[in-house]
Design goal:
single chain; 159 residues; alpha/beta; Helix Hairpins; Chitinase A, domain 3; five-stranded mixed β-sheet; two-stranded parallel ribbon
């Protein structure tokens, strides 16, 4: 099975690499030390510290593996070099809520980079999927957790 390429920005890849470095150089050694200390306390069958450390170790190793796979399958896209007459990955999109007249701006980013509070939505989110391929003035309709939503594309740009 061939893994799918995962689009992400340079910033997103850098963030993953920093997290991986932290897990490998700080977390992993800390967990190993905690396991060694718990083992020195004797009977492992009733040793809550040992169980907790082993659980932390399993989580840490799973996350390391997950990040390594994401980096290996990353398709890093330099959003500063993008140009398109339609909305694509990396675009900053200003939308007008046709019901409330509120304006919002989102950047379409990779899955691990999304943070709605910072205006960054995953390329796989329903809103981003509805925006891809649209242009200024188009109406976007999609199903949100709060029901049907409709936005007008005010503008989009790359930076």
């Amino acid at each position: 099975m061939v893994a799918e390429r995962q689009p992400m920005t340079h910033e997103g890849k850098s963030k993953l690499e920093k997290e991986l470095h932290q897990l490998i150089t700080v977390e992993r050694p800390s967990i190993i030390k905690a396991i060694e200390e718990a083992r020195s306390n004797g009977d492992l069958s009733e040793n809550a510290d040992y169980d907790a450390a082993k659980e932390r170790q399993a989580f840490c190793e799973a996350r390391i593996s997950d990040i390594q796979a994401k980096i290996a399958n990353a398709e890093v896209i330099d959003t500063a070099r993008l140009r398109s007459d339609r909305i694509i990955f990396g675009a900053h999109v200003k939308l007008l809520d046709t019901e409330s007249e509120d304006e919002v701006t989102y950047q379409i980013v990779g899955e691990d980079e999304s943070d709605v509070t910072r205006g960054r939505i995953s390329v796989f989110s329903p809103l981003a999927r509805a925006m891809i391929g649209k242009k200024q003035g188009d109406i976007i309709e999609f199903k949100s957790p709060k029901g049907e939503k409709e936005y007008e594309v005010v503008e989009f740009f790359f930076k």
